[in-house]
């Protein structure tokens, strides 16, 4: 579960304040990258939300523990859990080759996205 952006909340020490949290179904975005020959490629990945904020590095604790037990994959980048919305995924290879692709998430458990680096 994830929450969309909300307004700032200010509470002083002597106050009691009720807050309503709305959690939405979230999606783990699984990104794979291939070169022009459809061979797995390595690149840095940047995922931006519709507000232009970087959301990489968000990883659920259970996913982090699972990766530590089973190892990380160099062929797949996991980003999330992410709330429903529109995102822009950019991959930049060491040689400067890059590609960008939009993706919409609707709360499905996982979403696979394959990016292809072009010359």
What is the secondary structure topology, with strand pairs?
Blueprint: E1 27-34, E2 44-49, H1 61-70, E3 77-82, E4 85-92, E5 98-105, E6 110-116
Parallel strand pairs: 1-6
Antiparallel strand pairs: 1-3, 2-4, 4-5
Could you walk me through the main structural features you see in this protein, from its secondary elements to its overall organization?
It is a single chain. By secondary structure, this protein is mainly beta. The protein has a single domain (about 25-115), classed as Immunoglobulin-like (Sandwich), CATH 2.60.40.10. The chain is about 10% helix and about 35% strand. The chain has 1 helix and 6 strands. The chain has one helix spanning about 60-70; strands at about 25-35, 45-50, 75-80, 85-90, 100-105, 110-115. It has a 3-stranded mixed β-sheet, with no helix packed on it. A 3-stranded antiparallel β-sheet has the order 2-4-5, with no helix packed on it. About 15% of the residues are buried. The mean pLDDT is about 80.
In short:
8% of the residues lie in helices and 36% in strands. The protein is mainly β and 119 residues long.
